[in-house]
Specification:
Layout (H helix, E strand, L loop, with lengths): L2 E6 L9 H10 L7 E6 L5 H7 L3 E4 L16 H6 L4 E4 L8 H13 L3 E6 L2 H7 L6 E4 L11 H4 L1 H14 L4 E5 L5 H9 L4 E4 L9 H9 L1
Length: about 220
C-alpha cells in the first residue's frame, strides 16, 4: 500500500480561486510508485477541482449537517455528491468539540468519506483515535507553517503517537505533519512508523510546486 502525501492548500494566495485547479493540474503530473498524492483545496474551490483533476480530493473540513436548512454548512453528503473522497477534521486551525466531532465522523463514514482527524498532543491523540478514523494526523501546532519539521523537533513523540494509535485502533494509520518540507522529513516520518505526511505551505509556496513535490518524493 502506498504511503499518503496529503497536501493541504489552506487559503494561501497561491491556492485559492482559479489558481486552485491550475495548481492541481500541475501536481497531478507528478507520478510516484511509493506515494499516493491527495489534495485538500479551499472549500469554495472543491467542486471545480474535484471535477477537473485526476488527483483524489479531500475537504479541509466537514460540518455536522445534512441536506436541508443548514446555512453556511459543509455537508458530508454534498461532498460525496460533488466527487470529494475524504475530509480533514479537527485541524488546529479549525478545532471541533469532541461531542460534535464524534457525530461528524459517523456521518462521514456513512457517506464513505475517508476520515483524517488531526491531533495536536498525545492526550488528544488518545481521545480522537477512539473514533477509529482512517488516518490520525499528528501536528504540534507550534511547528505548523514553520521551518523546523516535527521529525527533527519531536521524533520521539511521533513514535509514541504511532504506538498509542496502534493500541487503540489498529486499522488507523498515522500521518506526520507540521513543518514537513524535505525528502528527509518524509523518510524519517516513515521510519518512525507513520504511513504518510500532511503538508501545508511547503508545496504551494514553492517556486515550482510540481518540481518541488517531485524532489520531495524522490
Amino acid at each position: 500500500m502506498k504511503s499518503l502525501i496529503l497536501l493541504n492548500f489552506k487559503t494561501y494566495p497561491e491556492t485559492t480561486g482559479k489558481k486552485a485547479l491550475l495548481l492541481a493540474k500541475r501536481l497531478e503530473k507528478v507520478r510516484s510508485k511509493k506515494y499516493e498524492i491527495v489534495i485538500a483545496p479551499s472549500l469554495p474551490t472543491l467542486e471545480e477541482v474535484a471535477a477537473g483533476t485526476l488527483l483524489k480530493v479531500f475537504s479541509q473540513h466537514t460540518d455536522l449537517a445534512g441536506l436541508g436548512p443548514f446555512t453556511g454548512k459543509v455537508s458530508a453528503q454534498e461532498l460525496k455528491e460533488i466527487g470529494v473522497k475524504g475530509t480533514l477534521l479537527n485541524h488546529s486551525e479549525r478545532k471541533i468539540p469532541f461531542s460534535i466531532l464524534k457525530k461528524i465522523v459517523k456521518d462521514c463514514k456513512r457517506n464513505k468519506l475517508v476520515v483524517v482527524i488531526c491531533a495536536s498532543s498525545l492526550t488528544e491523540v488518545h481521545k480522537v483515535t477512539q473514533l477509529a478514523p482512517d488516518y490520525l494526523a499528528y501536528e504540534p501546532p507550534e511547528l505548523i507553517g514553520g521551518n523546523i519539521s516535527v521529525t527533527k523537533a519531536k521524533p520521539e513523540v511521533i513514535a509514541k503517537a504511532v504506538k498509542l494509535v496502534s493500541k487503540i485502533s489498529p486499522k488507523t494509520k498515522v500521518l506526520c505533519g507540521a513543518g514537513i518540507q524535505s525528502r528527509e522529513d518524509i523518510i524519517k516520518a516513515l521510519q518512525l512508523g507513520a504511513k504518510g505526511v500532511l503538508i501545508g505551505h511547503a508545496v504551494p509556496k514553492a517556486k515550482d510546486p510540481a518540481k518541488f513535490l517531485r524532489e520531495l518524493l524522490g
